[in-house]
Amino acid sequence: MSDTHAQTVSYVRDTMLPQAEPPLRDKGAVKWMRENLFSSWLNAILTVLSLFVVYWIVSHLYPWFANSVWRAGSLTECREIRDATVGSDAPSACFAVIADRWQQLLFGFYPKEYYWRPVLALVVFLVSLWPVLFDNAPRKMLFFTLAAPFIMFALLWGGPIWGPLFVALGFVLGYFAYELVNKSAGPLAATLAAIILPLLYWFYLVGPLAGLFSSVAPIGFEYVDSKDFGGFTLSVVIGVAGIVLSLPLGILLALGRSSDLFLINKVSVGFIEIIRGVPLIVWLFTASLLLNYFLPPGTNFDLMLRVIIMVTLFSAAYIAEVVRGGLAALPKGQYEAADALGLDYWKAMRLIILPQALKISIPGIVNTFIGLFKDTTLVVFIGLLDPIGLTNAIRASTDWNGVYWELFVFIGLMFFIFCFSMGRYSLYLEKKLQREHR
């Protein structure tokens, strides 16, 4: 034995062995399934039950989609095509109603010869969002963003262009009034001037000026009444207007509720609690039926505008609470830091407090926006033909009487695209503003 040890020569490998593949259970899909689907007996049971539910749903829905008919002029023709191809007992969707009535679902009763106007308004809206949502846009594009609401109004409703133009000039008047008064009388007087002067201008000068210029130079588009709006055009207009207008109003209400000034605090609290304490459908009925009793006789207040105002106020109350939660979540040291820098209230809010509070509030704000956009379907109860209301009009025709699921699947898919896009942008914005890893 000692001779064997004496003759043993040590060996040192001078080349690396090729890297071996990990065991099958520790790589790829098998590893993922072991960790996520079958990590315990309870997880395995839930996985099997979930697979059974998914299989049951797919096994019932797949034939309905696979046997669907896309080319037909009526529900009767759909059934004849189904009977001739897959048999009368086979489930089959009649998506031909979408191919036949998609324009009505998108534009309602908007004149067909003017379909290009809502499409162009949508393009203007998307382009105007570019400098607001993304940093790679030129900053000068913000001027186009400011002008976009007036361009969209002129495209959608039409009429002489002088009305929207002179209304837009009111905001310019407010800006210059603030700048001029702020230099001599301070920010409070400047704010009052920036509010009062445009209001006086809009109430007393816009109408005569627009009428005068319209008679001299009748430039504009053919007028389209609000009752002709419908479908997703109506939902998008109400939803976008409510979102754009409710965010700044909600921020102001949140600041008012957090204020130490007694009157401002109580007014903000009362507004928020009253609006939140009543369902949206009640406010819509109020806008549709009761508001006329409080207006001067002969006043014609457009129903669609009334709905936009009520939706804006309702959404602003919820956004105010979301933003107030963001303000409450900030450490007290942030407020003390703003005081240490010698900033006044508005500069502290604009430069230090609100940016952080809004970053915290992004999920709640976007969630409120998504809920607002889906709640636009409630306008069907006050006579406006949103996509849900148009399904009743489509089924009222003899050609498509009896079609239900196909219309609701299409409408649900369209709403999902809008809401999913808002949710994905919310995630993108949260990751972009994340600073804890730096």
UniProtKB/TrEMBL annotation:
Cellular component terms (Gene Ontology): ATP-binding cassette (ABC) transporter complex
Superkingdom, natural source: Bacteria
Pfam families: BPD_transp_1
InterPro entries: AA_ABC_transptr_permease_3TM, ArtM/GltK/GlnP/TcyL/YhdX-like, MetI-like, MetI-like_sf
Cross-referenced PROSITE patterns: ABC_TM1
MF-aspect GO terms: transmembrane transporter activity
GO biological process entries: amino acid transport
Membrane topology: Multi-pass membrane protein
Regions crossing the membrane: 37-58, 114-134, 188-212, 232-255, 267-291, 303-323, 360-384, 404-428
NCBIfam families given in the database record: HEQRo_perm_3TM
Protein name: Inner membrane amino-acid ABC transporter permease protein YhdY
Native organism: Flavimaricola marinus
Upper taxonomic lineage: Bacteria, Pseudomonadati, Pseudomonadota, Alphaproteobacteria, Rhodobacterales
Record gene name: yhdY
